[in-house]
Amino acid sequence: MTKEPTSQSQHLEEIVRTRLSRRTAVKGLLAGGAAAAASGIAPMRWLTDTALAAAGDPSTLTFKQADHVIKDDHHVAPGYNAQVLIRWGDKVLGDAPEWDVNNLTPEAQEKQFGYNNDFVAYLPLPAGSSNSEHGLLCVNHEYTNGEMMFDGLTRKDKVAQMDARQTDIDMSAHGHAVIEIRKTGDQWEVVENSPYARRISARTTEIAISGPAAGSDRMKTSYDATGMRVIGTINNCAGGVTPWGTVLMAEENFHGYFSGDPEKTSEAENYRSYGLAGKSRYSWSRFHDRFDIEKEPNEPNRFGWMVEFDPYDPNSVPVKRTSLGRFKHEAATCVTLPDNRLVVYSGDDERFEHLYKYVSNGRFDPNNRTNNQDLLDDGTLFVAKFEDDGIVRWLPLVWGTGPLTPENGFRSQGDVMIETRKAAKLLGATPMDRPEDVEPNLVNGRVYMMLTNNTRRKPEQVDAANPRAENAFGHILELIPPGARGPEGGKMAEHDALTFKWEIVMLCGDPNNPDHGAKYHPQTAEYGAWLAAPDNCTFDNQGRLWISTDQGSSQRKNNIPDGMYACDLDGPGRALTKFFYACPRDAEMCGPVFTPDNSTLFVAVQHPGEGGESVFANPSTRFPDFQDGVPPRPSIVAITKASSGSFGDA
Ligand code: FEO
Ligand code: CA
Ligand code: CA
Ligand code: CA
């Protein structure tokens, strides 16, 4: 939809043009689409005039693209294999029963692979090695689609329709799974009866609480008078891996599990700020009082945290690390500084929410794993303020400083962490277009931030880092710490610095449709493919960006599949996106991660068949089994190259 530009938006347009095209506009390159031609083109680093003048496809990614069309089945670029490794209901624990979709039980689900796989981590075996053919796969199970799991439910009314048994299955299908996997030839398989196999669930797993909010009166419930322990973790979206080989599971949309009126609690302002609105998206509170805030008013304060656990020890107790703040966490990506302090990046995935980073006080000890167990309890959380001049400032959330005082309702650092959003807003953090994954690139030292979309941003609300009103397609930002320049960028980046620079890598959408205002490399329409709603990302060993997308219900409208796209970040192919792998219909793509040698890319196909009138009996796809009576199943897919050569080559 085109709007009359306001004088403010004209001013911002000018800034964005500068931020997008400092180096290239002066060289007179023209962009592909009309909108792009009018307002500048994607930046390209360290280009020579010769490189700019080169004809042909400038990308280092030479694979032949996958068909950019939606199909019932998944499909991958020619010359690559896509193998379904594990599906919802498959065995995780050795004594798990065979999956029978017509006879599901909570006890079986506690031992089987959960629903809606999101984050995926590959941890080599033995621990600390770089083995790319044997390891642990650690997978978040974010949420469920009851209408696809149980016959007879509808998407609209399932909260009222689900019975107690279905509700417990639903709770057990949330959480996390650890499986041991091994590659023989070009096929991966799950190792049966692995001593590492584990399910963490929302229904049964005991979890500790640590850091400044632990023990707060606001964390205490009738189950837990200490405020130090909680049953379960929910809505585990993306995540991360620490340098000492533990896994971080991000609790994202925790608000959707609670019923009851926030105004009837002493936490009304807090709960409103996180979107609790009286109505639950799940049936849990009908059978478990702790999800009804009028019965258990502090329970929502015990969710929205970053959860750490040790996948190498199946008996380890996961810990909610409250030093990393409470919000709708998407991702927790770690990088060590030269002095071995740790930095963790995390986004708060909601419209107009913020980007955060945590800097530890202690140092990672590579020689003694147990010395690292408190690094995520002692440190400083910062929130990002993006200035229009291309600077990003990191503002510390420290109790007693600036506005974070008792006058504003903060009586302790625990309060600052429980109400992280309120603290960030008081500090003047920039409201972003839904921060999803944020990841440091260890090759070039810069940090990449996926902003998935924000159709509620009004023209008068645009700023240089969120430059489009009604942003339906999302964009990708690049944050540049001091030192992150040139070939040594990955080693020199100062991720703890209080000031970074930032640039726009791309504005997503169709470059051939002027209404989208998309901006990529100018030859994207010719040699690549457009994308919408960047969600997760990862990097290959050359530092190239691999992007997974989640268009949600817009997939049907945009009529392009969700899946994996890849582009160069440096050199003449910067921001020329190519399409590599297509999800099946109505699925989103999550969890991309490479093995250390880049020979396998693992991806998570989440909620195949979700949307519209699609239900168990009549789903829009039956991926991956395609058998009558069997609904679609969220699955992990292992992608390998069929012939020799590097991943990303033809
Ligand atoms: Fe669970 Fe922000 O995606
Ligand atoms: Ca996501
Ligand atoms: Ca990622
Ligand atoms: Ca998503």
How would you describe the overall organization of this protein?
By secondary structure, the protein is α+β, with helices and mostly antiparallel strands. It has a single domain, classed as Neuraminidase, CATH 2.120.10. Helix content is 13%, strand content 28%. The protein is built from 14 helices and 31 strands. Strands 14-15-17-18-19-24-23-22-21 form a nine-stranded antiparallel beta sheet, with helices on one face. Strands 9-8-13-12-11-10 form a six-stranded mixed beta sheet, with no helix packed on it. The protein has a five-stranded antiparallel beta sheet with strand order 1-28-27-26-25, with no helix packed on it. A hairpin with a 6-residue loop joins strand 21 (435-440) and strand 22 (447-451). The chain is globular.
Task: Supply database-style keywords.
nine-stranded antiparallel β-sheet, disordered N terminus, binds calcium ion, 28% strand, alpha+beta, 650 residues, Neuraminidase
Global structural class: alpha+beta
Number of helices in the DSSP assignment: 14
CATH architecture type: 6 Propeller
CATH domain fold name = Neuraminidase
Strand order of the largest sheet: 14-15-17-18-19-24-23-22-21
- Which ligands does the model contain, each kind named once? MU-OXO-diiron, calcium ion
Helix proportion range: 10-25%
According to DSSP, the number of beta strands is: 31
Provide the CATH top-level class. Answer: Mainly Beta
Radius of gyration using CA atoms only = 23 Å
Binned strand content? 25-35%
Uncertain parts: 1-6, 21-53
Q: Please report the distance between the alpha carbons of the first and last residues.
A: 38 Å
Query: Could you give a short account of the major beta sheet?
Result: 9 strands, antiparallel
Mean pLDDT: 92
Shape category: globular
Count the domains: 1
What's the CATH H-level superfamily name?
TolB, C-terminal domain
